[in-house]
Every structure is written in structure tokens, then in C-alpha cells.
Amino acid sequence: MSPPTPPTPAPNASTDTRSTVTLLAVAAFFSGAALRICDSLLPRLARDFDISPGQAGQVVIGFSVAYGGMQLVFGPLGDRYGKTRLMCIAMFGCAAGSAASALAPGFGSLVGARIAWGMAAAGIIPLAMAWIGDNVPYEQRQATLARFLTGTLSGMTAGQLAGGLFADSVPGWRGAFLTLAVGFTCVGSLLVARVRHAPVPARADGSAHPAFVAQLVAVLRVPWARAVLVSVGAEGIFLLGPMSYLPAYLQHRHGVALSTASALLALYAVGGLVYAITARRIVAALGERRMAFAGGVLMGSCFLLLWLSPVWIAAAPIALCLGFGTYLFHNTLQTHATQMAPAMRGTSVALFAFCLFSGQALGVSVSGWTIDHLGFVPMLIAAGLVLPLAGWGFATALHRRALAAHTA
What we know:
α5 (83-102) runs antiparallel to α9, α7 (125-135) runs antiparallel to α8 (138-167) and α8 (138-167) packs across α14. With 408 residues, the chain is mostly helical. It is globular and about 60 Å long. It has helices at 15-36, 42-49, 53-56, 58-81, 83-102, 107-121, 125-135, 138-167, 172-195, 212-220, 223-243, 246-254, 258-265, 267-308, 315-337, 345-374, 377-407. The chain has one domain (15-199, 209-407): MFS general substrate transporter like domains (Growth Hormone, Chain: A), CATH 1.20.1250.
């Protein structure tokens, strides 16, 4: 898997900021691959360890729970000691975790290694988003974050494709994890060389750093922060949870090879890339409220279409639309996440990621149980009905907030 040509930030960004965002996008590429690499590997893991697909989902659940929980550590530490410094530690932690996963002698040890990997991965994408929030003005931030997303989304595409290819090959999941270990090591070394002499940024308000718990509580006391966090939690449960089983669903429903299923679903990330490329025009044309609502409706419709479609090839355009709808909704959420508490932006974005990936862990658990006991259809219908409601709910909250600001 080779990283993409990373994006450039907003036009007003300095040369130093542009080069840092470039490197962060490459780091996000490998982190995105780590997030999705196991989706296509679940049937292979189930076969290799003689377990059900729902049980194999523990490698996703463990990673997600650890990823979400460690946000509460990395976020405040990033505010205190510097976000890029913490990202360096996280990259080498991911290298160790992915290598340990590749060498795992049994399924229990593999789950343990994935948990350790998820703990380390918590310090990459969210802290990079918070760094962009610190260094890019708000009016440029949605477009800049969208461009940064090209690194994550390209990595997700590569991870989904590579997972399917490795699942159908002799190296299997061990080869997939070793490949990522090499990538994390290389990018981590480049990041260390770049930030070794970077000063620790001062807090925006110039005050002393509050205690760890106080930082978390301070963000949660903001009503708008709670609205954003609830919305992204719903996204994690009803989008990311079911998505982990879509390759297995296509194989079960249509009998396609895992590599084929993975290639079809990799178009999800391509849909996200289409959004990222056109984000500036979309924001200007639709505005955040319409983006959130349209994204929710599009996501839900795609899950229902996957259920209703009689042919496997239809999964390709459906996945493309699903990715586009996801980032209409998600990028609106994460832009607001960078502004929930500007003086503690690392903590704010960390809580955002915590809710997203805790939701994913819950969603994977519930989806796995549903598949093992009831089949795939109830999972698809639930996602198809709830995601439009989530988009409508956040769009309504945005409208009420705008009215309150106008009348204040």
C-alpha cells in the first residue's frame, strides 16, 4: 500500500503549515488503513480460527474500544505537551501493535494485540484534526479538513482493498498487518525528524493547564458540545458498526469472493474523496444544515438499497454514494468538533473521536450478535432507518443554534 499524494491546506496557510499537513495526511493514510483493514479479513479470521464471523468481529471491537478510550488520554496530553509530539509516539506504537498482531499465535493474543494497536492509533487522526484547528482559521477549516480527509480516505480504500486481497492470498492477515507495521515505522521516522525541535504550543487563553478530568468536564458542560457528541455517537453505532460486516454480507448474499467484495466497498472511500475534492463548493451551495440532513438521508438509503439490490455489482455505486453521504454529515460534525472548546481543542476532538469509536464498538457488538442470531437484514434495516433521523436531528440542532445566535 503506497500513500497518496497528500493534500495542501487552505491558501492562506504558511509553508510550514502546508508541509506539516502533508505529513499528517500521510500518517492519516496508514491510520485509515488500520481502521478498515480487518473488515475484509473477518471471514478469513473466522475460517483460520474456526469461529463465527460475529466472534471474529472482536478484532474490530477491541480496536475500537481501545481507540475510543485512549482519546481521553491523548486529547488532554496533546493540549499540554504538543499534538505533533504525541503523534510521533502514537505512530511507533502503531508499528509495534501491528507487528504484534501479525505475530499473534492465537485468536486471543491477536485480539490483545489489536487492543494495544487501537490504544496507539488513538493519537493520530484526532490530534491531527486538532492541530489543524489550532493552525487554520475557522472559515477555511471545513475545506482544509476535507482535504486532510483525502489521506484518511485513501488509506481506508487501500486498507479495504488490501484486506480482501490478503484474505484470499497465502500471507493472509499476517501479511496485511506486517505491511502496515513497515508503513507506520517509515512515516513515524519522518514525523520525528520534522517535529523534533518544534516548540510546545501555548494555550490559546494563556492560562495554566487544567487538571485532566477538569478538561473533559469543561467540554461536556458546553450544550452544543453535547449535541455534536450525541450525533457522532449515533453515527458510530449505526454506520461504522454495520459497515464492518458489509464484505461478509456481500459474500453471503451474492457469493462473491472477499477480494471482489472489498473492491466494491472500497468505493465508499472514493465517494468520500469526491466530497473532499468538491467540499468548498458544496459548503457554499448547501450550507451545513442541508449537508447534515442530506448526508443522513443518503446514508440510510444506501443501506436499504444494499438489502433490496438483487445483483452484486450494484454494491459499487451504492458504496460510492454511501461514502459521499457519510462525509456530507461527518465533516460537518467534525468541523464543529474543532470549535466546541477552542482553548482545549485537543480534548474536544478527543471526546468527539471517543464517542465515534465507542459507538462503533457498540455497533459492531450489536451487529455481530444480530448477524449470528437473526441474519444480516435487521442490521441493514436499522441503519437505513436511524441514519436519516440522525441527519435530521443534527440539522435541526444547527437551525436552532443559528436562530439563537441571531436573536441573542
